[in-house]
Design goal:
Blueprint lengths: L8 E3 L3 H10 L4 E3 L5 H9 L5 E2 L3 H6 L33 H10 L2 H17 L7 E8 L2 E9 L6 E9 L3 H16 L1 H9 L2 H9 L1
Helix pairs in contact: 5-6
Amino acid sequence: MEDLPDNAVIGTASLRRQSQLLAINPTFKCVNFRGNVQTRLRKLDDGVVDATLLAIAGLKRMGMDGCATSVLEWDTMLPAIAQGAIGIQCRSDDDRSLKYIDALNHPETKTCVDCERAFLETLDGNCKTPIAGQARIVDGRILFRGLIAMPDGSVKYSTESEGAIEDAVEIGKKAGAVLKAEAGDKFFEMMVEMSPQQVIGQLTK
C-alpha cells in the first residue's frame, strides 16, 4: 500500500475496504469495481485503475496467486466479520444432520467467528457502516482487532484485546462496547441516516 502514489485510483466495491484505504491515504480515489477475477485483472492491465483488492484464497484456488503483488495482513487492513469462514445452517431437531455437521466443524475457526460475531452484534452495524474485525488464536490465547469508520476514512475507531479462548464471546462483546462508547450515539445515528447516495458522495468528494 505504501508504494501507491497519491491520487491512485483503487477499484473496490467494499465500503469497509474503502474506509481503510482512505484512512491510510485520503488522496486515494476509490471507484466501484465489479466483475469476476479475470475481468478485474483485465481492467487493471488496461489502466482503468492503479490497483485492486482480491481474495488471496480465491486466487490460489484458481492457480492465479502469482498475480498478487502483496498480501495485506491485519496490521494494514482488517477483513469483514467471519470472512472466509463457512457456516452451515440446519434444523435444531435434525440430529442426523447435526452429527455430520459436527464432524466438519473446526473448533478454532468457530471460536474466532464467535468472537467476531459478538463484536458485530454489540455494535449493531448495518451494511452502510464500515465495520471490520478479526480474531486469531496465538499461543493458546485469542487475539482480537476491530474497527469502525466513516466511509471516507476521515474518522476511525479501533481496538485490540486478548484473553483466554473460553472467553472469546465476552472478548468480542467488550471490544464492541469499547468502540460504541468511543464513537458515541451520533456516529451510528449518522450512519443509519445516510442514504446510499450520501455514502457514495462521501467517497467521491
